[in-house]
Write a structure and sequence with these properties.
Shape: globular
Largest sheet: 7 strands, mixed
Bound molecules: D-MYO-inositol-1-phosphate
CATH topology of the largest domain: Fructose-1,6-Bisphosphatase, Chain A, domain 1
Strand content: 15-25%
Number of helices: 8
Number of strands: 14
Distance between the termini: 37 Å
């Protein structure tokens, strides 16, 4: 059955491929110069000329094809007030993993999502360096390179193993404030630390430097879950459709499903966890926007959920 969003999905894939080609050439030193610089509002966060060029390119093509659609993009929205309305809206992160891009670490992606009535319906995440394209359209599954259904057979066994056997993805984000970091790293340390029975709460942790790709790794079945505090809508919008269509789940800091109706358009989405096969592994953000307010909350939830 053809999806009503098939045209949008095909177009989003072609945008990701065109933007991806610019990224790949620049990564290989053959195209645009990166001209990486730190962002004015956060010196731990990088932006490059390629981020800006690709966002302009993609927005220009969307405006040509769908002149009435709304646009939200990392480079134009960062630091500005923005709002996800009920109108058809494209949500673009032109280069997710900008630090990786600037450092030559091959986990870099362009992320393009489409929402209608504040519902995310199409998501495409393309890593042009490794030539891996993840795509999904609501109700039609998630795919790798348009041919391999996600999760892949090599992914985690079904149902999910207990937390102690899980591979846990995380990103430390770009807020390097001492209090935020110590709380965040404290949570990670507790998950890695030996427990009374000698094992750790999680089997291992991975950080690839791109939230969009972390989500695709969950959809693929390579990571059991991914947790981050402080993601923005453009980091996770496309990945959300891909995770859900692969049978996973996306939750926000309140434990609610992180979809537009449940408040995903609010930025930042403070904390997310993804569950591949329907069991509830939640990493719950500490109350309020200050993650140091209750550093034990995530651990407690993990514990409770692990013993379900
Ligand atoms: C960032 C990356 C990073 C994550 C940050 C994101 P950007 O996106 O996904 O891994 O920790 O939260 O903002 O800035 O490279 O597009």
């Amino acid at each position: 059955q053809q999806s009503e969003y098939q045209e949008v999905l095909t177009f989003a894939i072609s945008l990701a491929q065109q933007g991806g080609e610019v990224i790949r050439q620049a990564f290989d030193g053959q195209g645009l110069a990166l001209n990486a610089r730190v962002k004015a509002d956060n010196p731990s966060d990088l932006v490059t000329a390629v981020d800006e060029y690709v966002e302009t390119l993609v927005f220009g093509k969307i405006k040509e094809r769908f002149p009435t659609h709304c646009l939200i993009g990392e480079e134009t929205a960062s630091g500005q007030p923005w709002k996800l309305t009920t109108d058809p809206t494209w949500i673009v992160d032109p280069v997710d993993g900008t630090t990786n891009f600037a450092q030559g670490f091959p986990f870099v992606a362009i992320s393009i999502a489409f929402a209608v009535d504040r519902e995310l319906v199409v998501g495409v995440v393309y890593n042009p360096i490794l030539d891996e394209l993840y795509s999904a359209c609501q109700g039609h599954g998630a795919w790798l390179n348009q041919t391999r259904r996600l999760p892949l057979p090599s992914g985690v066994p079904k149902p999910l193993p207990p937390l102690s056997q899980c591979l846990f993805g995380f990103e430390h984000g770009s807020d390097r404030t001492h209090s935020v970091l110590s709380s965040r790293l404290g949570s990670l340390a507790r998950l890695l630390e030996k427990t009374e029975n000698g094992g750790a709460q999680v089997r291992g942790m991975r950080c690839v430097g791109s939230g969009a790709l972390d989500m695709c790794l969950v959809a693929r079945g390579s990571l059991d879950l991914y947790w981050e505090i402080g993601s923005h809508l453009w980091d996770i919008a496309a990945g959300t459709v891909i995770v859900r269509e692969a049978g996973g789940m996306v939750v926000n800091g309140q434990g609610a499903f992180a979809n537009p109706q449940a408040g995903i358009p609010k930025e930042p989405v403070d904390e997310l966890a993804f569950d591949l096969m329907g069991r509830k592994y939640l990493a719950i953000r500490a109350a309020g926007s200050d993650p140091s307010a209750d550093p034990t909350l995530g651990r407690t939830s993990m514990r409770q959920l692990a013993s379900d």
